[in-house]
Specification:
13 helices; 332 residues; 10-stranded mixed sheet; 10 strands; alpha/beta
Length: 332
């Protein structure tokens, strides 16, 4: 038979055990992230672009990193005509995140101000470069030479067509009367040019664009400079303020450029959402976008331009609160 502990000894043992429990509780309180929100979950749709464009490829690679960083989030990709279409998908609720050019955002703000007021940015990504592609033996030396020719102008709802209209106006050409406008995207225009059904096509995308690379491997093509249009383009006022003079480096398309840089225009791409999105989820997505730059950049060279220092410059959109939290947390 086990004898009972003395009353004094039992009280001391109980007090010692309680002290251990209190100490353990304090340690756990310091170590565990009490009050932190649960990991984001659910489903979201990212609207990208045409299947063979840079937006679509970037979206595919970003989805892989989001799957790793946010395993409880089911990320789905939506193909689209491009920037303007993406913004429509956001404002009508079909997508929760999208990629769009800064000039397309301004156009959306002009044509649907109430809906566009809810748009917010997560990050400035990389710049799109405007590219005018013609057959290798074409006599086209400037946009003005496109008069009466068959010109690929981008699909309806694309940022390509938005810029093309403004470039043609800067060159003194009427979109509807002075060219035969073929409303197709980068998924169709290269083949149409190769088959002799187009005399030229415009494209706005990151460098290099694989569809242009592949076209150059199949048939001789040239890139036509657009730098001479910058002054006239800027005279169009506020709607053109996001276009800047740029140079396509000689190694963007080495087979095409043969060591020559090409003067053109560029416009920034933004990762866009709305003010309805959860700040915790938006912060996490912004973090993955910035941290995935190097991996994605090995396959989409334009993504190498994604940078923490420039990502916050998202004019004409304010930062989403979740994105802002991420950038503040990264300050030294």
């Amino acid at each position: 038979m086990v004898s009972a502990l003395p009353r004094t000894g039992g009280r001391r043992a109980l007090l010692a055990a309680a002290a251990v429990l209190v100490t353990l509780g304090l340690v756990l309180w310091w170590l565990l992230p009490l009050g932190s929100p649960p990991a984001p979950g659910g489903q979201l749709t990212l609207s990208t672009g045409v299947r063979s464009g840079v937006y679509a490829r970037y979206g595919e690679l970003l989805k892989q990193d989001l799957r790793r960083d946010l395993p409880r989030v089911d990320v789905r990709l939506m193909n689209s005509a491009g920037s303007l279409d993406n913004l429509d998908q956001l404002t009508n609720g079909n997508a929760q995140f999208a990629i769009a050019t800064a000039d397309a955002v301004v156009e959306q703000q002009r044509r649907a101000p109430e809906a566009a007021a809810r748009l917010r940015a997560c990050a400035r990504l990389y710049d799109d470069y405007m590219q005018l592609v013609v057959p290798g033996d074409s006599r086209v030396g400037s946009t003005r030479d496109l008069k009466n020719l068959r010109v690929g102008v981008g699909a309806d709802g694309s940022g390509v067509q938005l810029i093309t209209r403004r470039l043609l106006a800067a060159a003194g050409l009427d979109f509807d009367d002075d060219i035969e406008a073929v409303r197709a995207g980068i998924d169709r225009m290269p083949k149409l040019l190769e088959d002799g059904k187009l005399d030229a096509f415009f494209w706005s995308g990151g460098l290099p664009t694989s569809a242009v690379q592949q076209l150059a491997r199949r048939t001789p093509v040239r890139l036509v400079q657009l730098g001479d249009l910058i002054p006239a383009l800027h005279r169009q006022g506020g709607r053109a303020r996001h276009y800047r003079a740029a140079v396509m480096p000689a190694d963007a398309y080495p087979q095409v450029q043969k060591g020559q840089a090409i003067k053109t225009i560029a416009v920034a791409n933004l990762l866009v959402t709305t003010d309805r999105q959860d700040p915790v989820l938006t912060e996490a997505i912004t973090r993955t976008v910035i941290r995935s730059r190097d991996r994605i950049g090995t396959k989409v060279h334009a993504a190498q331009r994604v940078d923490l220092r420039t990502a916050v410059f998202t004019d004409p959109l304010p930062l989403h609160e979740g994105a802002r939290r991420y950038y503040v947390s990264e300050k030294p």
